């Protein structure tokens, strides 16, 4: 059979004959058996079959004429594309090639033990899916094709799709000659994912370029809804470097998607598939179990290692057998090509009313006039540099997406068409808002912000914003370890390129406030909770958790793990919760568990809570979350840091409670640091050093207590000086006492970020590490290097 190649015969060397997609399927079948990567079987028609079809149908001359007319701008792209596709759909296969396709289909059916196999018919262009260019989504795929004649018709339609409007335009932009590109058709046994689920997997974080993350999007039914962005899917994130250890479960985040619709087999009537609503149970359930997520992630890791580059993989689960399959793999071509030597940082300079929110694509900010487009027929209304607002996009939308200042959609996840194309174009986008086309109105001035982490926001009005190019090359080496302060997990991945060596302060209370929102004791004592409104809100947030405390542990462990993964294997100091009583009370259900204090800043906070019966069980949940992130996920770089520990005796009590909850200092490499923010931490530094592995200076609280100034007092603001000589002498004394005891000292307070000269003082005092706000890192590194050089000069002169 001269015009048919079975997948198992193919390798990546066969792109010219069967296209990138089909060659990749054969490569995986042949080369990844040892990794147990499962790929459904099938066959491919060759490029020669395509050219034979073109000649036998007598369409070559007319095809060349239409493309030449398009080049001369005598016809529009839409006119040329439509006429070319009509030529192909009316064409006929030479009888010998048609018979080869029928015979191969019969053999595939025999291999699977059925009379007529249900197959997926996929287009695979011979210039497709190269490491520097992606043709994803430009050609057609036909699902649940049954019968030889239906297959031949699907092959014709695949040929026609080589000339979709987007494919023609993209080849022109990339410099490909239309008449030098052929199309192979892949015929692959269907996976009954209509009875289970399917989706897309990237072996790189598509938003930040973080290379050690595998991101999986999933929906029930066939995978078209995820690829086309018509639903908001589940999203799973897996930390790739820990996948090699089968004892670990490095799933660091699971987000439940709305999953409102799914594509299933049609019962007949001339249509192969149909789109239906999902059930309420499906919307409340994850598509994949943790074991299935990890298996797909390990396959993704194996595929990436084999190809030597980040990959874009489509997967499916068979609802009849429960088996998992990879059905496509192609190089990822946008994030992996991004310039790594610099980082552009955007910042909103003012705030406005939030109108809608969704998944942030990119990290830029843009402002403009809203134009709501509900159908491609309305594209003529769009204006350059406007904000495109629509339900979803497909390849036909690309021409106006290029002209948009920003894109906002109702539907779609991070692997939707809108997300993929906006990354490729460098246009900020917010996808999956659910309501943008209803909330935003034509002509409304808005600001689209993707610069605040994983969630993007559309604000009312044109807000002021700034951007800065941060150059990462030629960064000086420093003896002093430079670290970073991080509040939210999303921010950690946004700044992973910065030249730091760990995180000196990860604020647990930010994770609790933003991602949990419930007071831990309200979950521990839920059966006795008197606040009916709080009970209703807790029921809503903890839906799917039989044990409500598990909601707290699960989400907190995920937040800690995401922050720790961003800097693995460098140390990440996670400070246990440091809310004040008034802040704890503001959490859902919190008022029943918090006393009213006249001065919460100096009251029932920090270490004093952790062994007290009023909060001890809540602290146990914090310990469970840390233990899960360290030992189940495997992020042993997490270091526990205790805030506001007043005396060595208090330290003993807290360490005892931690040990009771499975966090024993020294076991499994666990280190425990203490915040140095109270004068007693300094005067008794030798005793604290016996109990802890390090100190981290909290300059705000230390300044407050050294100078006797409430840091929140407006009237005394002028007296609150972190750079004051009294504060400096206190810090110098701590460093000297701690070093005498063999214990390192770092600082995670605001002072070195806010005062350049303070960073130089810290170097002179011998500080071991300085943890900075992300936007202060580059400038402070230079000042630290200069200070270290000044210290070396006298030593060199003396020698």
Which properties best describe this structure?
21% strand, 29 helices, alpha/beta, eight-stranded parallel β-barrel, 799 residues, single chain
Task: Work out the strand percent.
Answer: 15-25%
**Separation of termini?**
82 Å
Multimerization status: single chain
The tally of strands reads: 30
Helix content percent band: 25-40%
Spatial extent as radius of gyration = 30 Å
Strand order, largest beta sheet: 23-24-25-26-27-28-29-30
Task: Give the biggest beta sheet.
Answer: 8 strands, parallel, barrel
Low-confidence stretches: 129-135
Query: Which structural class do you get from the secondary structure elements?
Result: alpha/beta
Shape: elongated
Total helical segments: 29
What is the topological layout?
Elements: E1 4-6, H1 15-31, E2 42-45, H2 47-56, H3 60-71, H4 77-89, H5 95-111, E3 118-125, E4 141-146, H6 148-160, H7 165-174, E5 183-189, E6 197-202, E7 213-220, H8 224-228, E8 234-239, E9 251-255, E10 261-265, E11 273-277, H9 280-284, H10 290-307, E12 311-317, E13 324-331, E14 342-348, E15 354-361, E16 365-372, E17 387-390, H11 398-401, E18 406-409, H12 417-425, E19 429-431, H13 436-439, E20 445-449, E21 455-460, E22 465-471, E23 481-486, H14 489-494, E24 503-507, H15 508-516, H16 520-524, H17 532-541, H18 548-565, E25 572-575, H19 581-585, H20 607-610, H21 616-632, E26 638-642, H22 648-660, E27 672-676, H23 679-683, H24 685-691, E28 694-697, H25 699-707, H26 725-740, E29 745-747, H27 751-754, H28 756-765, E30 769-772, H29 777-798
Parallel strand pairs: 16-17, 17-18, 18-19, 23-24, 23-30, 24-25, 25-26, 26-27, 27-28, 28-29, 29-30
Antiparallel strand pairs: 1-2, 2-5, 3-4, 3-5, 6-7, 6-12, 7-8, 8-9, 10-11, 12-13, 14-22, 15-19, 15-21, 16-20, 20-21
